[in-house]
Amino acid sequence: MTQTLQSQPYAPPPTDSAHRVAALNRNDKPFHVVLAQQFDRTTVDQLCQLADMIRSIGGSRQGNQFLSTLLSHRRAMLYFIQPSTRTFLSFTSACQIVGMRYGEVRDRSTSSEVKGESEDDTIRTFSQYFDLIIVRHPMEGFAEHVATMLNEMSRPIPVFNAGSGKDQHPTQAMLDIYTLYRSFLGPQGTRSEPRYSRNVFAGKTIAFVGDLKRGRTVRSLAYLLCRYPGVRLLFISPPELGIGEDILDYVSRHGIEYELGNDLRKHIGECDAVYMTRLQDEHDVAGESKKIDYYAYSLTYEMAGQFRPSLAIMHPLPRRHELDPRLDALPQAKYWAQVRNGMWMRAALIASVFNVDVAIRDHYQAYYTF
Amino acid sequence: MTQTLQSQPYAPPPTDSAHRVAALNRNDKPFHVVLAQQFDRTTVDQLCQLADMIRSIGGSRQGNQFLSTLLSHRRAMLYFIQPSTRTFLSFTSACQIVGMRYGEVRDRSTSSEVKGESEDDTIRTFSQYFDLIIVRHPMEGFAEHVATMLNEMSRPIPVFNAGSGKDQHPTQAMLDIYTLYRSFLGPQGTRSEPRYSRNVFAGKTIAFVGDLKRGRTVRSLAYLLCRYPGVRLLFISPPELGIGEDILDYVSRHGIEYELGNDLRKHIGECDAVYMTRLQDEHDVAGESKKIDYYAYSLTYEMAGQFRPSLAIMHPLPRRHELDPRLDALPQAKYWAQVRNGMWMRAALIASVFNVDVAIRDHYQAYYTF
Amino acid sequence: MTQTLQSQPYAPPPTDSAHRVAALNRNDKPFHVVLAQQFDRTTVDQLCQLADMIRSIGGSRQGNQFLSTLLSHRRAMLYFIQPSTRTFLSFTSACQIVGMRYGEVRDRSTSSEVKGESEDDTIRTFSQYFDLIIVRHPMEGFAEHVATMLNEMSRPIPVFNAGSGKDQHPTQAMLDIYTLYRSFLGPQGTRSEPRYSRNVFAGKTIAFVGDLKRGRTVRSLAYLLCRYPGVRLLFISPPELGIGEDILDYVSRHGIEYELGNDLRKHIGECDAVYMTRLQDEHDVAGESKKIDYYAYSLTYEMAGQFRPSLAIMHPLPRRHELDPRLDALPQAKYWAQVRNGMWMRAALIASVFNVDVAIRDHYQAYYTF
């Protein structure tokens, strides 16, 4: 079954990005969260602001109880065929925060697919029971295919892409930019001020390190960073695992300065943020990762002396050798906060898709500003 | 373990149907939903009416919040040892609609049975934590055995049969008759009128197609249709996969007209409803399904010209070749609605077993009639 | 992975019990439920009283709805790597009773550990999403290690030990002592009276039977019984599966009388409670269990004539041959009640750790006393 599926990827339609985005953002259909390119700067900024509001409101028992009534009449299906604990728990936590109940299918062996059902029918079935489908899938383009299919049902519902194939992981990109934003903004000012409107990315150098060829989180984040003129991107990877040409084209077209490198040790001192990624052996069929100098793509404890005080160290996790656990204790380590930020950002995304963001903003204005 | 279990089926007690029904409907014990024969016509009609009310109330956020308080003090265990996504999600969705929390056991490998516990002790344990047990099991008669065992505990609780062996699947039969009812009744009239009391089945021809020998949903539905005088049943199957003699006896005893056939193509034009089923290879030990002319038991796109305008195409799903996906777009296709109907019907059944049906009727009368 | 983990147990720190307890009960950190020794007599008594209150309040729909608001703003992670249905469902039921939502990880194959993540990072990730971690793990000392690690995070949260290795199972011990208490106290008096303060254990003989070497529940319960002067303990086991010397030392130091035996048949008539355990083949690597006279460590139907009328038969379950199912019908059988007691006791423990025990006591005083 898996074999068959992997050999027949749902190729994204051969149209350009603008057409794909338009098909996902139709006014007469639900908003599907599938590609990072769907989010313009205003939307990104508003979602970061909304995530901050949810975090503040969620800090009290009363606030939590308000949040948990917002979507108590809606239910989500998490169809997570590709192994993932972190993203799965992040989404379920986000659902719980906004009061949404959910079901899950994580293993084809307990499903009707063992009786010969097509995966399309499985998705159509979900759409009869649930109000949202969150998919994580090994096939590139799968979430986009689901969005198209759901738009044809008599009761269309939104889909979230929680990672499909090596293509994109848009909600990870949103939590990453939220983490960068919070780190660059520094200590919180007055709570009534809209914090996420200034371009704090201008003049900042952000390095991406590791396997940039297969790391879909980097691809999605690169798209979003192009909304912030003046940011400078460093792509540091072994030549054979370099960032895709399509991304570099996109970055160039948006007038963003970038540089390629192959040794983190030469660049760490100039970074405002360093986004570490692991070498993904599980996708490695050709054995490219054998001959790599891992130290050139690792952040070690010995390098801490070169860190800028305001450096933000990030990692989508799980980490392996490329990020020394002894760095966890440093103020520059943002990767655990990044995990928690993901929960708030996903709650913000869900709230927005179901149009309860307004209720959150009203509640925040009423109780959390002075 | 599975081997041992399957070679020792819990044979239903060798008493007649009336005795079995009486044992499940005892006044001094919880009501167990195990056999289709337990439901007389009044009960079927009232449950269909209740399912409609839940659907209407569940259409609004306020209505949903009312529903979700009904059984927030009760909890269900779903013991689904036989693979099933559709029925599992239907029941969990139904639980969520009426506010019931639940736990699940779907895999013996995570359970205490690997330490040598008997399955009876496993069920007894569940009965200490939960207020309802929903079982799906490969063994014929298992749910009935559980009902008997639970009646002996100091704190008896109800059991739902979500499919055991090739015997019965009563909640599927209830959702099927609900779907037929809705289809035959046509567009909804004034909402205050009790719709489910007229015998709209009289004069209708309903065809069952495919493997009728092992398809437990057909068996259960046939029992229920016998409550509606004047309905005509067509059983279309390969001779070696024909409907059981016990069902034909039951149908005859209730004065229902039936006919046997072996080619759907000859009958499709006379059908008011056609209930497709798949050939269940997974139960096929003797290889009977090899020599069958599949086209005689399939509904193809080419046959659409012969469909009556009011035809209801149904299928318990999952489907394979016997039901062409291109038919999905036709107004006659009712199988996706059938999936969703199952959720409402199961919510109605749960509500009834816990006696909160009255609260639903009161709420409906107060807010949804004019 | 499992191999590696099992060959590197997290050895408990080589300090004495008092130091370990102090590290888990720090005033500036959350209270971690890891060792039975953490609970002094006042705490045990109060928790039993609290469990009774929750049981009473949970008997009505309104009471249940009160309970389910208590921790609706908190969420728990159940990390159950070692197979367990009973304890898992007991904890999830307890969470549901106090309104706590939860997530679960029960299988490393769906987790990020397959991508090479360390288990420590897995736990750190959980701590970003959840407010409580409940762990069941094959490694001795694992829960204690987690407590230490969580205390170092910027957002420390409590951990519950739901069984780690052959060391301890403190929540099982708490439910066991609660069951003994209820059995020795007899029929409930006026509900306003604090029942759990008298030492009803004084003068009672409690036998532990079976594999006492590897049965962690017995170890934990023995610690707790030492809080009740005058109790007499009987340890009945094959010599090669005897209770640990560390436990006998602890019992002696606390002035508790005990006796060792090797045949239950000689002692059953003098017992006020008999705590049966199964021979745990799954831990048996050296084959010690082959040569044992199982009848000497079994409770058979034939022995019922020798039972004291007030005998309490207990078993942590699952049972095998050592406890005859025909005994279930006797009033002396307390093992099914023991299962249900576990749910109330765990709800009491969770409520206490999050300081909502006061709200429960207030509610009980207001509505359930006369």
Uncertain segments of chain A of ≥5 residues (pLDDT<50)? 1-9
Q: Specify Rg of chain A, calculated over alpha carbons.
A: 20 Å
Strand content of chain A: 5-15%
CATH-derived architecture of the largest domain in chain A: 3-Layer(aba) Sandwich
Distance between the termini of chain A: 58 Å
The main pleated sheet of chain A reads as:
5 strands, parallel
**Number of H- or I-type helical stretches of chain A:** 13
Oligomer: homotrimer
CATH topology of the largest domain in chain A: Rossmann fold
Gross morphology of chain A is globular
Q: By CATH's scheme, which homologous superfamily of the largest domain in chain A applies?
A: Aspartate/ornithine carbamoyltransferase
Q: Tell me the number of structural domains of chain A.
A: 2
- What is the topology, as strand order, of the major beta sheet of chain A? 7-6-5-8-9
